[in-house]
Amino acid sequence: MSKMFEGFHKLETSGNIDINNAVGATGTVYARIRDSGVGEVQVTFQEKMQTKEAVSIDGVTLNSGTFIEVVGVVGETLQVKAIDSGTVREEEE
Fold first, then answer.
1. How do the domains of the chain map onto residue ranges?
2. Residue 36: φ, ψ to 5°
3. Are 22 and 77 spatial neighbours (Cβ–Cβ below 8 Å)?
4. Phi, psi angles (nearest 5°) of residue 34
5. Does the pLDDT at position 3 exceed 80?
6. What is the mean pLDDT of residues 59-79?
């Protein structure tokens, strides 16, 4: 029985997402990020599209659809900045 649980544990941990791998990824704002608040972004990292909470490092409101780059991580929250749409990496469009 313990071997079975060891197998489950391996399956569970092998696909873990390390949020720090999001730094440098580009994506879009999903739910508006107010100047001093939290919103949501969609970014692709570790070969999966993720929807994560995010804050603007510039202290400006970022509306839905704004192209962003992840520049840092605090806990489970991404720190993002707006970028020009021409800066989005091809594999993420």
1. 19-86
2. -125, 25
3. no
4. -75, 160
5. no
6. 97
| Letter string b/e over residues 39-71, b meaning 16 or more CB atoms within 10 A of that residue's CB | bebbbbbeeeebebebbbeeeebbeeebbbbbe
Q: Where are the strands (E) in the chain, listed by range?
A: 26-31, 39-45, 48-56, 67-74, 77-82
Length of the chain: 93
Half-sphere exposure of 9 (CA within 13 A, CB side): 6
Class of domain 19-86: mainly beta
Comparing CA positions, the residue from 70, 72, 35, 77 lying closest to residue 54 is 77
Q: How many helices (H) and strands (E) does the chain have?
A: 1, 5
Tokens 């929250």 belong to residue: 77
State the average pLDDT for the chain. 85
79: tokens are 């720190």
